[in-house]
């Protein structure tokens, strides 16, 4: 069978791997721990995690759909900016929960992608929000007591339980990835994960060897420091770098789940032959997510992983 494309590049989160109970909940916990100065009783005995109460998974998804928050630390930062500018007297979870209305806030956002610069311009920059603290809390919650240490850190301050990364599930099964490789396709990854986190989860599911190139957030941040500009999605940098590693003069597909992913692929068209594939099927609010994605004009929309085979066929 002839192929219409030579290379498929994937996002990891909610594309290759279901992260609804890991990354989304890590964002929710990071917000609550930050706002309560770590006073939530997370260290109590028992196998089960308590449940974050301030923001729902749908709240976080709706916020990420505003664009520019593909990096989860930035998403936490933006949410904290929003929460700390709400008109309440006492900064605690109960009064905050009464006034949180991300649907109404989304209606006020006229220019997208919003991102950290956009929300700071709208609401100001609260002095209480520190990205270093956000990153520390998030990594402890996401990696947990075993992997946080394996990633070069020693002491945990906020979370002494198993990390939420262990809740993740594989979406693109080995059999399908193997079929893509046997068709002669090369596979790549452009992700907002660090290299450590990307390699860990891909090894855990036994699919790391299917991929010929990975561009993690580490490389993007290094380039940002050199070029002194933001290069995170919806910027096409990670896609163009992955394409460079695989041979730029080929026909590419990029599979992502968020508007930022589709915008990145569409913007990469100025440099490479690439088409965008939207795969938003794991969204909690699929109707809202589809409406936002359709505004970015993806080239293809798939409902399940095997739909990718249809796109790969030539007419």
Question: Could you please describe the fold and organization of this structure?
Answer:
By secondary structure, the chain is α/β, with parallel strands linked by helices. It folds into two domains: 7-19 and 169-312, Rossmann fold; 23-165, no CATH class. The protein has helices at residues 23-35, 57-64, 72-84, 93-99, 102-108, 115-123, 131-150, 174-182, 195-204, 217-227, 237-246, 259-268, 286-295, 307-312; strands spanning 7-10, 17-18, 169-170, 186-190, 213-215, 251-256, 273-278, 300-301. Strands 5-4-1-6-7-8 form a six-stranded parallel sheet. It is globular, with a radius of gyration of 19 Å.
Provide key terms for this protein:
Rossmann fold, six-stranded parallel β-sheet, 315 residues, two-stranded antiparallel ribbon
Task: Write the topology of this structure.
Elements: E1 7-10, E2 17-18, H1 23-35, H2 57-64, H3 72-84, H4 93-99, H5 102-108, H6 115-123, H7 131-150, E3 169-170, H8 174-182, E4 186-190, H9 195-204, E5 213-215, H10 217-227, H11 237-246, E6 251-256, H12 259-268, E7 273-278, H13 286-295, E8 300-301, H14 307-312
Helix pairs in contact: 1-3, 1-7, 3-6, 3-7
